[in-house]
Specification:
With 65 residues, the chain is α+β, with helices and mostly antiparallel strands. The chain is built from 1 helix and 3 strands; from the N terminus they run βαββ.
Length: 65
Amino acid sequence: MRDTEYMIVQLSSGQGSAECELAVRKLYEVLTKGYPDITMLSSHAAKTEGCYTSILFSAECDLAE
């Protein structure tokens, strides 16, 4: 059995505004379209509907390239 290497990445709005929380969602959406092996591990919803203060995900590919 082969060990699978993967990355764990966190996107965060930090102390930013609602626009930063929206950017977290939109970046995650773009990444999942380009890298279908991405799996959301956890998320923290923002006060603004449809936005996130953070998203933690894993990917089997190297996103650093």
